[in-house]
Design goal:
Chain lengths: 374, 1083
Amino acid sequence: MNVPIECRAKWAAERARDAFLALADGAVFRGVAFGARRDALGEAVFNTGMTGYQEILTDPSYAGQFVVLTTPEVGNYGCNAEDEESRGLFLNGLVVRRVNPPSNFRATEGLEAYLTRHGKPGIYGVDTRALTLHLRDHGTQRAYLHASDEPLAEAEAVARARAWEGLDGQDYAARVSTHEPYAWNDAGRLHVVVYDFGVKRNILRCLAAAGCRVTVVPAKTPAEAALALRPDGVFLSNGPADPNALPYAQETVRALLAARIPLMGICLGHQLLGLACGARCGRLPFGHHGCNHPVKSLVDGAVAVTSQNHNYALSDLPGCLEQTHVNLNDGTCEGVRHRTLPALSVQFHPEAAPGPHEAQALFRPFVALMEATR
Amino acid sequence: MPKRTDLRKILLIGSGPIVIGQGCEFDYSGTQACKALRAEGYEVVLVNSNPATIMTDPATADRTYIEPLTPESLEAILERERPDALLPTLGGQTALNLSMALYRRGSLGRLGVEMIGANAASIDRAEDRQKFKEAMLAIGLDLPRSGTAHTLGEARSVAAAIGSWPLIVRPAFTLGGTGGGIAQGPEDLDRIAQAGLDASPTSEVLIEESLLGWKEFEMEVVCDRKGNAIVVCSIENIDPMGVHTGDSITVAPIQTLSDAEYQAMRDDSFAVMRAIGIATGGANVQWAVDPRTGRRVVIEMNPRVSRSSALASKATGFPIAKVAALLAVGFTLDELRNDVTGTTPASFEPALDYVVVKAPRFAFEKFHGADETLGTQMKSVGEAMAIGATFQEAFQKALRSLEIGRAGFGADGREAARGLPDDALADALAHPTADRVFHLHEALRRGWPFDRLHALTAIDPYFLRQLWELVAFESEIAAHAPGPLPHGLFLQAKRLGFSDRQLATLLGADEASVTAARRAAGLLPGYGLVDTCAGEFAARTPYYYSSYALSPSEPPAHGQRAILIIGGGPNRIGQGIEFDACCCQAAAALHALGCRVVMANANPETVSTDYDTSDALYFEPLTLEDLVNVYERERCVGAIVQFGGQTPLNLAQALKAAGVSILGTDPDDIDLAEDRDRFKRLADDIGILQPPSGIAHTAEDALAIADRLGYPVLVRPSFVLGGRGMVIVRRREDLDALARQAVAIAEGKPILIDRFLENAVELDVDAVCDGQDTVVGAILEHVEPAGVHSGDAACVTPPLSLGEETLERIRAYARAFAQALRVRGLMNLQLAVKGRDVYVIEVNPRASRTVPFVSKAIGVSLAAVAARVMAGQTLAQAGLPAERTPPCHAAKEAVFPFARFPGAEIVLSPEMKSTGEVMGLAPTPGLAYLKSQLAAGARLPLPGPGRPAPTILLSLCDADKPAGVAAAKRLAALGYALCATRGTATALWDAGLRPAACFRLGEGRPDALDLIRAGAVQWVVNTAGPGDDRLGDGLRIRAEALRRALPVTTLIQGFLAAVDGLSEHLSGVALRPLSLQELHAAR
C-alpha cells in the first residue's frame, strides 16, 4: 500500500530516538523530538491527569518545568482557544509517550503545531512510566531536554542539568505575571482585586460567575495600591516556583491582613498566606500534579476529588491559622483559614481546568466573607 | 462513622446461570462482596443456582444455597435464615429483579428485611423508562427527542417537533419490533409510520430521534451515603451508537474528549446518580455525544454493579464490587483503603498510564440461521480485555486475546476479506458484524480515505488513523522479508503490538524463528503494574501487563516455587465459568501449599483475574509468545494446563517444546487421548468397547466409512471445542454435505466417524489420579439419551439406571485409563451404556465442565485436589482418599440463548449450544430435577385451589407415546388439563384420558400455534423421533413457546423426570432449601 513519505520519516525518527531528557542524577530517557526543535533546561515533574493537556500547557504555575504526562495518548482532541488558561505557554517542555493528531469538533489546531507555534519543545516515545517512577523515588529533578538537531552527548546534557540553578529560591511569579493591571470583566456586585502570580483564567471566570467584578494586578503591586482600588476582597493567585523567594508578596499579604480586607488564596496564594502568618513552606518530594487527589474538609467532613499542581506545602501552622482541609493521600495541609481575620486559602485548585469541578463551591465562603464585611 | 452495627446477617443474591448479557462478571462481584462483608464480621447468606461459580464455594459465604432464583425459593430461604438485610445490587439484573419481586410481594416487609445498597424506589426510577425520562428532564439533562403518535398526522407533527432525520419508528406492543424502521425523510416516515400503526395492536408508534453513529461513552460511578462520589473509570466505544456496548470494542479511559467535555459529563453522571437516588454503591451511566456538535444525551443508567463495572475494576485495579458492598453497610469512601497502594484511601479516582481495550467474543457459528448483524440487542457470549502502553498495542493484544485464530489486527494470513469486491466491502463496513474490524483492516489496506470509512462506520477518525498506521506499518515490516528484522524496526514493530506470529506471516517465516530472532536480539517486554495511580504511589498488588514500550525490569524477588496457571480466556460456548472456577480453586490450593501462584488470563469477567486470587496476576493474551514471556519472567518451575479448558491444552505441546515444564499429565499423554488412532489402540488394550469408528480426511472417505459402519453415524472434527461441527447423520444422502462441512471446520485435522449408539445412556465420569491411585469424583447420568452434547444435557448424580456391577466396571475403566494415560490430576470420561455394554466415547485428561458441579455435589473441590496432586501430594494427602457418596441427589440443567437468536434452530444436538448451567439439590432424584428445571427458568405450572387447571400441550413421537401417555395419566390425576396433537390425542384417548385435541400445523385450525398464541397452554411437551431432527413443525412450535417464555420439554426422559418431581412435590413434599454447609456438615 501507499505510505506517505512523511509517515516513513516519522517511523525512521521513532527508531532513531535522537532526543532525550537528561536528569541531574544522571538518568537519561530517550525519545523523539516534537514541537519546537530546541533544547531547554527545566525541572521535571509528572502529572497523572488523564485529560487537560492544554490547560496544563497554559497554566503559568508550570513555568520553568518540564511536564511529564503519565496518560499515554496525548493530542487526541487537539487544541482550541477556549481551553487556554493564560495568555501563553510558560512551561519549558512537554514529555509524553505518544502524540496524536486531533479528532474533536472543538479542535482548531493539533498539539504539535500548537507547541511549535509557541516555541516550546516536546519529546515523545519516552517510557513515561519508568521516568515517573524515577521521579517518585528520587524526587523532582533538574533536567535538560535535548530536542534540537544539534548533536549533544548525554553526559554533557546531564552536566548542564546539574549546573542549572533550578527553581528553589527563584521568583518566577514576576516573570509570568501581567505587567499592567487590567479589568477581567466590568460588572459584579463585589469588586475583587486579583494578584496575578501566574493566575489561571478559570479562577477569574469562577470569581466572575460568583458575582464579582475582577481587576487583575501585577505580582509586585503594593498593598496600598491594591487597596486604593477599593476592593471588597483581594485574591492571591496560583503561580510557579518557590513561595519562599517572594518576600515582597509575603509583605503585601501581611499588609492586606492588617487592613482586614477579605482575602482568599489558591495554591501559591495559599502558601503566601501561610508564610505571611508564620507557617513554614517546604518542598514535597515530587509534588502533587494531577486530577485525582482526595481532599477532606475538616469543617464538614466532605471529600472532594481535586485538581492539584504544587511542589511546596505548608507545615508548622501558627496558632492564628486553622487547618480546614487535609490531603487524604499523604496528610499534607490543603487549606487554612485565619482564626480572627477574614482570610482563607486552599492548596488545591477548586477552579479545576483541568480536573473535577466539585470543589468550585469553595469560592462561596470568600464571597460570604466579602458580603459580611461590606 | 464507620459500618453499621445494627446489621448482623446479610443475604446476597447471585445472578444464576451464565446467559448472554450476564456472564461470570457477577461471580466476580458477588465473590468480592462476600469476602469483604465477612471480613467485616457480617454473616453472609448467599443464594445462587449456578454451581460453576466461586461464590458458591462453601468457603466463600457462611451459608450457601444452590437453589432456584425464584421468589418462592427466595422466600423460603428468607423465612429460614431471617437475615437483617438484602444486598440486591451485586447479582446483575437477575438479583435486582428478584429483589424487586420480593419487595412487591411484601416478603421483605413481612420478614423485616432491609434492602441495602439501593432502595426499591430508586431501582424503579432507573428501570422504568418513563420515570427515568422524567427524572432526567427534571435535572435539565438532554435525552433523545421522541414522541408517540396514534395517527399519521400525529406522526408528522412529532417528526416536525424533533426536527432532524433520520427517525426511528417503533410500533408499540409488537414482538421484536416488527413493523418498525428508520425513516430518512418525510416520504419514508409516512410509509413506515403507517405500516407501524397498522402493525400495532394499539395503533401506536414511538418516533425517536436517531442516535446512530453518535459517540458512545460510559461512566462507572461509585458513591457513599455522605454523598461523596467518584468516577472509577470512563469507557469509550469504538463502535458507536447502534451497536450494543457489550458487542462493541471499547477503550478505557475515554480517548477523544477534552477535559471540559469530560468533566461536564462527569458532573452530569453524578447528577443522574443523585436524581435516581442511589444511596450507596456502584452505578453505570451511558451517554451519547453528537460528534458534529458535541450535543450530549443520557441513554440509561444501571443502578447496580454491571458488566462494565467488572471491566472497570479490571481496567483500573479499583475493586468496585468490594467497595460497593462495604459502602452498603455504612462505610464512606474515605474510610476505606485503596487496596492497591495500601496507604491511600478509596476516595480518589484511578489514574491510568496505559490503555485498555475490550473486544467481544461471538458464537454465531453455533446458531445456524441467526441474524449476525450487530444491533442494540447484545449477542456476544464473552469478552477479552488487553492492556498496553498505547492504544495500538492494547488493540492488537485484545484481538489476539479473543482466541478466534487471529494473531492481532490482520497480518496473520487469515485475511478473508482480501477477495471481497469494493461494494461488498463497503456494505460489510456499513452493517456491523463480528468481523467488521477485519473488514476495516482490508479497507484501510485498500487505502480508502478516513472520511469515507467514517461515513460508512461512524468510527471516530482518531481510531481510524491509529488503525491505519498499523496497516501501513505492515509494509515496513514486509520490506525486510524474509528477515531478520533490523533491531530498531523489530522493537518498533513489537511496540505497535505485532505478535511474533504476525511478523512471521509478514516476513514469510515461521513463528519459532521470529521468536528465536527476537530473543537473540534481547527483545523482551517490560511489565507495567496496574496500580490505580499511574505510578504516583508504590503499589503492593502484583497485577501486571506486558508492553514493549516499557523497559524490561527485574522480576519481583520471591523465594517460592512459582507455578503458572493458564486460565480459560474469553467465555465462549463450551468454555466458560466452570474452568475459571477450577483455576481459582487450584490457585487457592497451591497458595496454601506455599507456592507462588502466577495466573495468566485475558477475561475481565472472571474471579481468576481478581488481583487477590493469585500471588501474581498477568493480564495477558493466552498465546505461546505471551505465556512463555510470563513463565520465564516469573522463573516458574511449572505450568498447569488442565484447568483452563481447551485454550491451555491446545498450547501444551508448544509450551513444552518452548521449554515450559507442564505439571500434571504430560502433553504427550494428553495428545494420546485426543489422537483418535492412538486412543483407539489404547481402548482396545484396556478392553473397553468403542462405537465402531473410522477416521476420514475427505468427504469421500467419510462416505465409505459410514457405509461400512452402518447408519446412523456421528460425524465430528477432532481437536475442537464444545462439539463444534458435530452432527448425527441418519441417512446416506445427507452425509456428503455434512461431512464436507466437518472437513472445513477441522482445518486440516481429520474428522471422526462413529457408529451412533441409539438410545444409549450417556455418562460423564470425573476422576482424579495421583499417579498411583485413581478416585472417582462422581458418575453423572445424562437425562437425555446419547446424541445431545454433554454440556447441553441435563444430568443427575448418583446415577439412577445403573446397577452396582456396571458402576464397578466403570470405576475399573477409569482406573485403567488413568494408568494408561499416566494421568496426574483430573480426568473426564464420557461413556455410553447400552444394555449391559459400556462404551467409551472419549477421555480427556483435564478438568471438565462438570468438575464444579461434582465438587458441590460431593462436598470436595476436585480442582483443589487435582492441584495438590500436581504439586506432588498423594490423593490421601490431598483430601480425597476414596470415592464419596453424595449426601443427596443432584441434578444439572443447561441454559440456552435461543431467545437471543430469532430464526436459529432450537434443537439439541451433539454440538453444544448452552451458555450456562444450574443445579438442583434434593433428597430425591425427581425433586432435584424439578429444582433444576425451575432454576433454569422453566416455569413449570403448578395446579392449585382456586386456579384454573394448567394446560399441557403434548405432541409426542411414536416411540415416546407409551411412556409419555403413562406420565400424562399421572399429571391428569394431579389436576393438569391435557391438550394434544392428533396422534398423541388418540393415544391418550386409548388410555382412557380425554384431552382436548388440536390440529398439527397445516392440517386445520386451531393448530398448536394458535393455542400457544391464545395463551391457552402453559407447558409444551414436544418430542422428536429418530430421523426427524429438523422437524419443521416442532421448530415453529418451540420458537413460539420460547417467545412467550413458556417451558418447553423436548425429550421424553426430561418429561418423565419432571413428572416424577412434580408428583412428589404436589403430594406434599416441599422444595426445602438446604445450605451446602449443612448438607456436607456430617463429614
